[in-house]
Amino acid sequence: MNGLVLSQGCELSLPGCTDGEPLFSTKAPQVYGVRVQLEMQALWWQFDQLGTEMIVTKSGRRMFPTFQVRISGMDPSAEYVLLMDFIPVDDKRYRYAFHSSSWLVAGQADVAAPSRIHFHPDSPAPGAQWMKQTVSFDTLKLTNNLLDDNGHMILNSMQRYQPRFHVVYVDPAPNSHLNAYKNFCSFSFPETRFMAVTAYQNHRITQLKIASNPFAKGFRTTEPQVWEGTASSLAASCPPDGSTEPLSPEPREQGTCPKSSTRQRSSSSVLQQERELPHHKETSVEPTMESKDENGLMTPAHFLHIPVCWDFAGSSH
User: Fold this and answer.
1) Can you tell me the mean pLDDT for 245-251?
2) Distance between CA 47 and CA 108 in Å, rounded?
3) How many H helices and E strands in the chain?
4) Nearest CA to 119 among 90, 146, 152?
5) Nearest to 196 by CA among 76, 82, 283, 280
6) Of residues 117, 56, 54, the one with CA closest to residue 82
7) % of the chain at pLDDT higher than 90
8) Is-contact 44 38, C-beta < 8 A?
């Protein structure tokens, strides 16, 4: 499913900028006109309406929906590196209130996990290659293991995160690192925010993932009519008794759901049991920064001289 066009450029403000003005006009021509379109944007929006949750495990778990984009405006002959990172949305820790089907603040967030960047495995590559097809980060995995040595992205459970996508021009000029801020641009899509969890909390998220993930066919009921319209029905909740529940404490217009079969309920139960038991407190360890491995997946945030935190504007239209 193709997403809606996102007319989002490289404009951003960097720490240390004395006047606080965007540095858009000083960007290198190879990144000045880069535009990024989020794929499966409608599906991301559906999850966002319910409160997207992503599973994190000790061994690492892939994201669904997968982060995929289409890129335009690159210099076809220039080399680019594509990468992703994840930043906390806030400094809060959350818990899920089942009686109100909503997330509540439960206190301050845990100690920040070691900062890592995920390089797309095809990097570096010419702009022509990046632009001719969808760019997918389907090998990216999320973990809650602070001692992970596989290059997975380390996140704390019960915290909200914003994925960020970065395009870096590989400047062949000598001492290009002195002007590194000119050679990259960053993009964020608010609809891709998610809560990191060790087990799904919202049963509607479980249902939508089963309905829309092609690898979850084994959890679906054999009655096709039960799942008809599930992936597109956002406002309706489908509890076991077939009644509807409000998505949030504020009342809103609700749809209707077919009554769930016993097999559907048991399928959701099996999916839930496959997840690791939720734990809300990580073992206290002293995080250490590790060097990049052979695949380029495990790199300190400062490797490419990119600031750890940006204050950039970006919204989908």
Assistant:
1) 36
2) 25
3) 6, 17
4) 152
5) 280
6) 117
7) 53
8) yes
262-274 and 203-212 helices cross at what angle (nearest 10)?
Answer: 100
56, with CB counted inside 10 A (0-12, 13-18, 19+), is buried
Go through the chain and tell me how many residues it has: 317
Residue 102 sits at φ, ψ, to 5 deg, of -150, 160
Give the model confidence (pLDDT) of 188-243 as tens digits.
999 999 999 999 999 999 999 999 988 766 666 644 444 445 554 443 433 333 33
Q: What is the pLDDT of residues 63-89, one digit of tens each?
A: 999 999 999 999 999 999 999 999 999
Mean pLDDT of 134-150: 95
> Please, which pLDDT band fits residue 298 given cuts at 50, 70 and 90?
very low
In a 13 Å sphere around the CA of 178, the CA atoms on its Cβ side amount to 3
pLDDT at 220: 61
d(CA 127, CA 71): 9
| Dist. CA 83–CA 118, nearest whole Å | 5
Contact 38, 1 (CB under 8 A): no
Tokens matching residue 301: 């945030």
pTM reported for the whole predicted model: 0.66
Q: Could you give the CA distance from residue 38 to residue 285 in angstroms, rounded to a whole number? A: 36
Rg (CA), the chain: 21
Where do the H-state alpha helices sit in the chain?
29-32, 41-50, 127-131, 203-212, 224-227, 262-274
Q: In 147-297, where does DSSP find H-type helix?
A: 203-212, 224-227, 262-274
